[in-house]
Each structure stands twice: as C-alpha cells, then as structure tokens.
TrEMBL record:
Organism (species): Formosa undariae
Protein's name in the database: VOC family protein
Classification via PROSITE patterns: VOC
Residue stretches making up the VOC domain: 5-126
PANTHER family associated with the record: F18B13.24 PROTEIN (PTHR46142:SF3), PTHR46142
Length: 127
C-alpha cells in the first residue's frame, strides 16, 4: 500500500476576497500561486508545503458544524488568544463556552473560531 501525507484542504467560500483577507489577517497566511488552473480559486500556504485552497462558490449553501474543522498548532497560544480578542473574533471551547479555551485530557489546550463562511478552525498547542 502507498504511504500518504497531508497536502491541502479545500474550502468552498462565498467571497474568495473576503476569505483571503480573513486568513491573511487572522492566521497571517501568505498567498501562493495557484499552479493548477487559471480559475479564481486562490491558494494560501500553511507552511511545510501544505496549502489551503479557497474555491469561490457564491451560490452554494455552506453548512458546517464544529466536528468538521481543521486544526493548526502554535507554540504561543496566549498571544494568539490575545490576538483573537484584539480582532473581536469570538472563540469557544469544544463545548461552545464563549471566549474560553479547552484543555483536553492529554493536556493540549485548544480554541475554536469560525471563518466568514462558518468553517470551524481549531488552534491548539500540540507542538
């Protein structure tokens, strides 16, 4: 059997410019060239060769729930949570307690927040 590694995540978004601005501001992701096509899909770097692809679908209904999310890790949770507060971005723990972080049984701290289309993003300190 072939071995696999993570390459990218693709999200359908209502307004690709709004989503690009959000991810650049909140997660400080750099935009990279879409090498796959000349479409309006835009790509962001998640570092280490991993990517976030934002696919414009202005007429699509986007349904999400917290169980469907992607997670990024940081070594400085305190600064990131402070930054979310400065941006007035609501976050919660896994149980939906507003503006509260969650510490998992294994000691990993995490918070969840949503992008402009309602996709859930987890930030944790699982370094």
């Amino acid at each position: 059997m072939a071995a696999f590694s993570f390459n990218h995540i693709a999200l359908s978004v209502k307004d690709v410019n709004t989503s690009i601005a959000f991810y650049q501001k909140v997660l400080q992701l750099d935009e990279i060239k879409n090498t796959a096509s000349d479409s309006k899909t835009r790509w962001l770097s998640l570092n280490e060769g991993k990517q976030l692809h934002l696919i414009p679908r202005p007429d699509s209904e986007i349904k999400t729930n917290k169980a469907v999310h992607f997670a990024l890790t940081t070594s400085d949770m305190n600064s990131f949570v402070k930054y979310l507060k400065e941006l007035n971005i609501d976050y919660s723990d896994w149980r939906d307690t507003p503006n509260k972080d969650y510490i998992r049984k294994d000691g990993i701290r995490q918070v969840y927040f949503q992008d402009p289309d309602g996709y859930w993003i987890e930030i944790n300190d699982d370094i």
